[in-house]
Amino acid sequence: MTLKITGGRDRGRTVPSPKGNLARPTSAKIRQALFNILATKVKGASFLDLFAGSGIMGMEAMSRGAGSLIAIEMDRKLALALKENYEHLGYEAQVMNDDARAAAGRLPAQHFDIIFADPPYKSPLGQACIHLVDNKRLLKKDGLFILEHLHSFNPDMERTGLALSDQRKYGQTVISFIQKREGKDV
Q: How many Cα atoms occupy the beta-carbon half-sphere of 36 within 13 Å?
């Protein structure tokens, strides 16, 4: 399978996805809609891609001018393919081959302008991501955490320093936009 970058300087370029890849890449329609919403926020942004899978979200961000990219992917084969694809496209990106929760512990606090997470849909990791981003203080003060999930999952921000600011539905998929609560910049 090949994936096509939908916008930015590398719009239309294709990248291979490893054979046997079980990752479920975010659809081109959703990627395009998401990055249209983000618009100017991406240029120069520090971007973290949790559960990177195919890596296409990080590629979309870099194509649109993100300043830095860290991609975390647990599957060794996928992580190696990510690194090759990023190098092929000329992107300077760090790929961490590790569990997202373990890798997040090694990331600097309040470092990211945009965090994207697309954990496996039928796992409890969506809620775990919310707590991870909050507890590890990964988001900059005015940063944005974007969580892709099934429509049946209801993100719970109770007892966190985060708040749901918007949601967009695309069929069975929901994109939740999450930010720090007012006055919760630490």
A: 8
| Structural tokens at position 112 | 């990211």
Query: Across 9-151, where does the E strand assignment appear?
Result: 14-16, 46-50, 68-72, 94-96, 112-117, 139-150
Q: Residue 185 to residues 33, 34, 109, 112, 148: CA-CA distances in angstroms?
A: 28, 25, 11, 13, 24
Integer angstrom CA distances of residue 82 from 32, 78, 125? 20, 6, 22
Query: How far out from the chain centre does Cα 14 lie?
Result: 19
* Secondary-structure class of domain 2-180 per CATH: alpha beta
* 39 burial via Cβ count (<10 Å: 0-12, 13-18, 19+): exposed
Which residues have a Cβ under 8 Å from the Cβ of 88 and sit 6 or more positions away? 15
Note whether 140 and 111 are within 8 A (CB). yes
pLDDT digit string (tens) for 171-182?
999 999 999 987
pLDDT tens, 8-47?
999 999 998 766 666 678 999 999 999 999 999 999 999 9
Q: For residue 131, what are its two tokens?
A: 């707590």
Contact at 8 Å (CB) between 147 and 121?
no
CB of 93 closer than 8 Å to CB of 69? yes
Question: pTM of the full predicted structure?
Answer: 0.93
